[in-house]
Amino acid sequence: MKITRAQLNHFRSYENCVLAPCEGVNVLLGDNGQGKTNVLEALYLCCTGRSHRTRQDRELISWGADFASVKAEAERRDGSHQVEIILPAMGRRKLKIAGQEASKSGELMGHITGVLFSPEDLRTVKDGPAERRRFVDMALSQIKPAYYYCLQRYARALKQRNEVLKLASVQPGVLATLDSWDGQLAQAGAELMAMRREYIARLSKLAGETHREISDGKEQLEIRYVPSVTAGDDIPSNLEALFAARENDLRRMTTSVGAHRDDVLLTIAGRDVRAYGSQGQQRTAALAMRLSELDVMREAMGEWPMLMLDDVMSELDPSRRRQLVGHLRGIQTFITCTDPDDLAGAGVGKVWRVSGGALTEE
Q1: Does domain 1-113+305-362 have CATH number 2.30.42.10?
Q2: SS3 call for 117
Q3: Distance, CA of 326 to CA of 107 (rounded, Å)
């Protein structure tokens, strides 16, 4: 997949910006705070419908502007794809696919696909389960739009079940609806768990191979799915777990078991990287996960997604940098950096100087 054109209007620091990238390595070069990351954020928004930095659309709109918009055009094996996202200061966002307004956010998935690697990826390894679930959810939503819709169904059922749990003490009659919400939660949860298990098994194999290369064969990384419901990825197991936790959930007024409590465990030589890994090991694990995400997406879609690297070259030692550069061949890549020397061996195609929210091709 190749981005052929991208346009940003009133997005973050850009009043108007048009980018016509090459098929290889595209570099956004400039000092910190000039708007390099904003371009990658806009491209990632076209892939997933979400920013990797904020959940508030208002923060993406330039100061004083009434709206922001991002449009991206791409060539894929099946032809041309165009995605446009319009973010008004007031009201709901609009999504357009090939110029036609989309009624559901899930329609965005799969048109433009990409993997973003940034210094914040270390949080996937170091922080709590929510960060690792988010990693899996974003990757799977791009590969399987059905996963994205299932995730939405699960979120709606979870919200309603939690509302019932909160109201039960003052309105006991609402307990009669709990079985219905349990059924919906169990069905969606079982589907999510099955897809997560399959994805993580494939990711673990590829990440293990990549990690061995990066560590010169000295270390073995394993990624393991840790579901909240351990009995199985089926509806009866989820229903049984929800029923067993009901008394406790009523007391705490929240749902304590289900796919929203899943985790992903990363180990090196059998030891939890989050708890026992060094800074270098954690960084290497994060890099291996992202590179393997590229491979899994290529296998699923039959073509490479684009790769976005946000100021990561300077964060990597020479060995990891060489491994990363080795993965760029044949992949359209967007790299932000402050020092062009960090890109040695990357085979740069186009370079833009970024200053004050403006791009100048060099």
Answers
A1: no
A2: strand
A3: 33
> Scanning the structure block, which residue is given the tokens 């007024």?
253
Pairwise CA distance, residues 351 & 189, whole Å: 45
Q: What is the pLDDT of residues 273-322, one digit of tens each?
A: 999 998 888 988 998 999 999 999 999 999 999 999 998 887 777 777 77
Task: Measure the CA–CA gap between 286 and 207, rounded to whole angstroms.
Answer: 9
Number of other residues whose CB lies within 10 A of the CB of residue 211: 27
Q: Rounded distance, CA 290 to CA 307, Å?
A: 9
Please report which residue ranges of 215-311 form alpha helices under DSSP H: 235-244, 246-252, 273-276, 279-301
Q: Cβ(208)–Cβ(222) under 8 Å?
A: yes
Q: Is 65 left (phi over 0), alpha (psi -120 to 50) or beta?
A: beta
**What is the predicted pLDDT for the residue at 118?**
87
Using DSSP's 3-state secondary structure scheme, residue 84 falls into strand
Strand pairing class (79-88; 94-97): antiparallel
> For the chain, which residues make up each domain, given as ranges?
1-113+305-362
Residue 308: CB atoms within 10 A of its CB come to 26
